[in-house]
Amino acid sequence: MSSGEPKAEKPTVYPPGMDELSTSVQRRLEVPMAIAAALTVPMVAITESHPGGALETVAGILNWATWLAFLFELVVMLAIVPDRALWLRRNPLDLVLVVFTPPLLPPGLQGLRVLRLLRVLRLVELTDLTKFIFTLRGVHYAAIFALLTVVGGGALFDALEPNQEHLSTWDGIYWALTTMTTLGSSIQPTDTGGQIVATVLVLVGLGFIALVTGAIARRFFGPELGRAEQELESEISSAEEIAQRELRNIREQLAALEVAVERMVSERASSP
Fold it and tell me: In this structure, which of 54, 205, 264, 269 has its CB flanked by the most CB atoms within 10 Å?
């Protein structure tokens, strides 16, 4: 392939139901929305402990602020995506969080606000984070997140289980640790809120174990996979060069054939 010939650009592929604008806006909203989802932990902990006073007001503000953030994202995305129905089918969590976790939920359904934490998982879909998360630094941050989940889950469990008055915060943390590692304990959730916290803990624990396993596999098999990727890229480049060369040959042959046809037509036109 000659150096002067421009290289064909690969077309950009966007997620289903989205275009360049909506994809850019969604990526810009990922981190703020993940922060809003993470604020669910202190908000629920404060609300369920019923401290009263300024802390109760702060919890109410956080509750409304996080839900309004989810509502804002949903409205913005529905306003700019080219195919709303397809986008909703591909992103059902955005609609679920707005419809099922409003601040005015009845007391029996207040535990559903923990579902807002699932919004943090959307960050894993980002390519840069996917490449980073299986490194040692990624495991380090994941371990910190798992530790915070154990502490926060234990505090939430203690606050959401009013029927188990003998439990302390340390008992809740012990329960959270055994639940996350799927070891199990004699402490069992008896309320809907506690059951939701247990589900989240199990998901985080399984995700952390899978991440550590992936990081170990990447550590041992990463060099071989890198060489395989390089070989594949070189084969693809060679195939592209061959295709470009064959395409140039075809163009040259077509040009020569066109000249020959024009010459034959002109000779026939000039002959008596």
Answer: 205
Has residue 197 been placed in a domain?
Answer: yes
| Residue numbers of the domain that contains 53 | 12-122
Tell me the three-class secondary structure of the chain, residue by residue.
CCCCCCCCCCCCCCCCCCCHHHHHHHHHHHHHHHHHHHCHHHHHHHHHHCCCHHHHHHHHHHHHHHHHHHHHHHHHHHHHCCCHHHHHHHCHHHHHHHHHCCCCCCHHHHHHHHHHHHHHHHHHHCHHHHHHHCCHHHHHHHHHHHHHHHHHHHHHHHHHCCCCCCCCHHHHHHHHHHHHCCCCCCCCCCCHHHHHHHHHHHHHHHHHHHHHHHHHHHHHHHHHHHHHHHHHHHHHHHHHHHHHHHHHHHHHHHHHHHHHHHHHHHHHHHCC
Q: Each residue of 145-199: pLDDT tens digit?
A: 888 888 888 877 777 776 666 777 788 888 888 888 777 777 777 777 777 788 7
Q: What is the pLDDT of residues 89-141, one digit of tens each?
A: 888 888 888 988 888 877 667 667 777 777 766 655 554 555 666 677 777 77
Taking CB atoms within 8 Å and a gap of at least 24, the contacts of 56-64 are: 60/103, 63/103, 63/113, 64/103
Domains identified in the chain, total number = 2
